Amino acid sequence: MAIQLAQKSQVFEIMEVIEMAKARLKVAGIDQWQTGYPLAQDIVLDIEQEAGYVLLKQGQVIGYFMIEVSEILIEPFEKSTIATLHRLAIHDDYVKQGLSDVVQDFFEKTAQTLNITQIRVDTHVDNQAMLAFNKRNKYEFIGTIRVQRGELRQNYEKQITKIIERSQSID
């Protein structure tokens, strides 16, 4: 299995995986992703911004997620860069096989590479799979937010350590 930046040629496969995730949410009685979003144009934008990733198994797209890097104001005149995991979707045939933890590991390492120490995930209050993901990966609830579409989401954050670069000195 591999994780790589998504390509525009993969949008159809990505949308198939997202539609599977939407159907699972609907069956579970969760209204998250039930109004169309995310659309193919959202995925294309992710790809154009080099923020969308696919999980591949033997060349087949079996998962998708997006990492958003943004600045937040933490003090009146101080900003902090954070990374947020969005649009995590897994193919029906690979649910409950630990792929979300593979994504989490990749997410943390990507953030560390960018010297980011705060990572976030937001989810619907009834999305038990993501709530379990947050708990398993030691995210802390930090509040409720309103996303761009006006819907409320629970916001979770995790502090991670920076990668310490070792300088090699020759004495």
Care to describe what's here?
With 171 residues, this protein is an alpha+beta fold. It has a single domain, classed as Gcn5-related N-acetyltransferase (GNAT) (Aminopeptidase, 3-Layer(aba) Sandwich), CATH 3.40.630.30. 29% of the residues lie in helices and 35% in strands. The chain has a seven-stranded mixed sheet. A hairpin with a 2-residue loop joins strand 2 (52-57) and strand 3 (60-75). The chain starts with a strand and ends in a 12-residue tail after the last strand. 27% of the residues are buried. The model is unreliable at 167-171 (pLDDT under 50).
Assembly context of the chains: single chain
Order of helices and strands: EHHEEEHEHEE
Q: What structural category do the secondary elements indicate?
A: alpha+beta
What is the number of E strands?
Answer: 7
Q: What's the CATH architecture? A: 3-Layer(aba) Sandwich
